[in-house]
Amino acid sequence: MPQSQQPASPRKKATIKYQTTVLFCLVACGAMIGVPAFAYTYGFTWLDWTMFAVLYVVTGLGITVGYHRLLAHRSFDCLSWVKAGFLIAGGWALENSALKWAADHIRHHANCDQEADPYNAQRGFWYSHCGWLFIKDTHADDKYASRLRQDPIVMWQHRYYLPIVLSGLALPFVVGFLYNGWIGGLGCFLLAGVGRTFAVLNSTFCINSVCHLWGRQPHGQADSSRDSWLVSLLTFGEGYHNYHHSYQSDYRNGPRWYNFDPSKWLIFTLSLLGMTNSLRTASTDNK
Ligand SMILES: [Zn+2]
Ligand SMILES: [Zn+2]
Known about the structure:
Distance between the termini: 36 Å
Strand content: under 5%
Bound molecules: zinc ion
Mean pLDDT: 94
Shape: globular
Strand order of the largest sheet: 1-2
Structural class: mainly alpha
Order of helices and strands: HHEHHHHHHHHHEH
Low-confidence stretches: 1-6
Number of strands: 2
């Protein structure tokens, strides 16, 4: 039967995931109320802003290079300790363990724009941006995680995900505390811990929402993926999403030298140092 004639399967009633919802509300309130209230009352120091910037870059690259290009797409290989470092940095972004994240992402590519796509952009901006997080996923399928489960470093990160997350929040507190006592610790925790987490979460969410709704499709219209250089500025190069959907295992998302893609620059630079190897591109895959 042609696909267009298939009856649409009835969507099951959504079950709210309360833990995730409460956690996200805490982070959002901390970032949107706690951060400005602290700025008004005490003000943030240069150290708070430096830690914010450093942790934004470190945790953002942990997601784009570690979770996404290394684990979900195997677009390069690397030394074990480098992989562990990327997975710790990615864990600090509070986007779930690499096992869960990468399995969801593999399913996104396999079922893009369909019901089984975990962040299906056909269901609208807010659903694909963050709404999908708050309801139980009825299409979860462990087959997408089976390859990842063979990787002992992935399983190690999955097992110790909670302490990894807590260490990422404790780090700015300790740095701020050493600089300026309890108030220093609280300020650095709020800005570089909670505010930074909220910022990185939303920049990642933009890939699933903005990059499937608005932008150009120079590499194909097989699915809703789009290129957005603006999103690339926030996400270390992940905004060239139409190219990425067309050439998923390319270690670059922006293939041209002038495309703003710090993730590919990092992977390439590490390859010169012998820390990453077997970098895949669309052309090497076609040989
Ligand atoms: Zn996508
Ligand atoms: Zn991808």
